[in-house]
Specification:
- The protein is α+β, with helices and mostly antiparallel strands.
- Helix content is about 30%, strand content about 25%.
- The chain is built from 9 helices and 19 strands.
- It has helices at about 5-15, 25-35, 110-125, 150-155, 210-225, 270-290, 315-325, 340-345, 370-394; strands spanning about 40-50, 50-60, 65-75, 95, 100, 130-135, 165, 180, 185, 185-195, 200, 235-245, 250-255, 255-265, 295-305, 310, 330-335, 350-355, 365-370.
- The strands form 6 sheets. Strands 1-2-6-3-7-18 form a 6-stranded mixed beta sheet, sandwiched between helices.
- Helix 1 runs antiparallel to helix 2.
- The protein is elongated.
- The chain starts with 5 loop residues before the first helix and ends with a helix.
- The relative contact order is 0.19.
Length: about 400
């Protein structure tokens, strides 16, 4: 096996069935690729109450700055019904220029290409003047509790510091070179509970239907836009994901109604200001939507993902130049999509994201064009050279 070949690297990783939270041999395979390049590789297992233990990997080449981090994950989502695949999900077979397998795009492909790019760079130029590290988790597709966040804390406690980071998530919507992610919207989830008075539908004057207040509250939450967006962020958006009364009877006014909602918010809001706005909207609706007996509560669910935007011309510029050199494309700088582990990394250093085309991620027959693996490897190789050259000049 030659680690300069991203196809061989990716096949080795896909053949490890590392469905979250199982390591599945993927970190062992990655360690075998990195050790011959001179990396010092350490494995760290993180634990948490109510969540499975997760094995993570940290590898570093070099002892001095500047220090570039590559971050990603080897865990994958379940393949579903393997019989639905045209090729076995963990066989990494190639047909008509396409490599099939769970994790091909999200995101073992990005890791395979970065390792190949490093190997090529070292072969041509020797080790970078500075340090390169790989921070790889096995928990990105799972609860996200025992992965990147804890691995960063562990590494920082050991004295690790970084100047910039690249996350190899699939960022391109249609073609390689379309898009660099330079930030992410925040994510906030809430559950609204409205309590009324249960009663017979034929005697509504003796009851208080919580759905009247709920309907008004949901209209208040979704009816008026929260903002119009900014130059780099789309408008903040709230979606109601469930409404329930737990009532199976057709002749009973329910006592309680619940609704769950999620907001993806831009940098016009903080967690505190957004919560205050939502509570104000619900409160005004509740005062007019039901009887005096109607009450409401809002529970905020899970961990809030903060909004962030990376403003680092050296990092984004080096990557954009590398993309243009290999593909001829000028990438869009974007903040679209869901959350990623970059939300943890941004607290330690500037971070951007760039990887493969994401059209088949999490799907049956997840696959990547072999030609894209070669192009991404060359983009990463150019980026490594450009970033260290600029960092040395500063």
């Amino acid at each position: 096996m030659s680690v300069t070949d991203p196809v061989e690297n990716l096949q080795a990783l896909i053949r490890c069935p590392s469905v979250t939270p199982e390591e599945g041999g993927a970190l062992t395979a990655l360690e075998a690729m990195l050790a011959p390049l001179g990396f010092a590789v350490e494995r760290m297992t993180a634990s948490g109450d109510g969540t499975p233990d997760v094995e993570n990997l940290y590898a570093r080449l070099g002892a001095d700055g500047p220090h570039l981090m590559f971050a990603g994950h080897t865990d994958v989502v379940p393949p579903g019904d393997a019989a639905s695949w045209s090729h076995p999900p963990f066989a990494a077979e190639i047909e008509n220029g396409l490599l099939y397998g769970r994790g091909a795009v999200d995101m073992k492909g990005g890791i395979a290409c970065f390792v190949a790019a490093l190997a090529r760079f070292i072969g041509d130029n020797g080790k970078p003047t500075g340090s390169v590290s790989l921070l790889i988790t096995g928990d990105e597709e799972g609860p996200g509790m025992n992965g990147t966040d804890k691995l960063l804390q562990w590494a920082k406690a050991r004295g690790e510091r970084w100047d910039a980071a690249l996350v190899g998530e699939p960022t391109n919507p249609d073609a390689l070179g379309d898009m660099i992610k330079v930030g992410r919207r925040g994510s906030l989830t809430g559950r609204l509970t409205v309590t009324g008075v249960q009663g017979h539908v034929a005697y509504p004057h003796l009851a208080d239907n919580p759905l009247r207040t709920m309907a008004g509250a949901l209209d208040a939450l979704m009816g008026k836009p929260l903002d119009e967006g900014t130059d780099l962020f789309p408008p903040t958006n709230l979606e109601v994901t469930s409404v329930d009364t737990g009532n199976s009877a057709t002749n009973v006014i329910p006592e309680k109604a619940t609704a769950t909602f999620n907001i993806r918010f831009n940098d016009l809001w903080t967690e505190e200001t957004l919560k205050a706005e939502l509570l104000d909207r619900i409160g005004r609706a509740a005062r007019t939507g039901g009887k005096n007996t109607t009450r409401f509560t809002v529970e905020w669910l899970g961990r809030v993902s903060p909004v962030f935007l990376t403003r680092d011309e050296q990092l984004a510029g080096s990557l954009s130049e590398a993309i243009a050199a290999v593909t001829g494309r000028t990438p869009q700088l974007s903040t679209t999509g869901g959350t990623s582990d970059a939300r943890f990394i941004k607290d330690y250093c500037p971070v951007v994201e760039f990887g493969l085309v994401g059209q088949t991620m999490h799907k049956v027959d997840e696959r990547v064009a072999v030609a894209d693996l070669e192009k991404l490897t060359e983009i990463y190789r150019h980026f490594i050279g450009r970033w260290f050259a600029l960092a040395a000049a500063c």
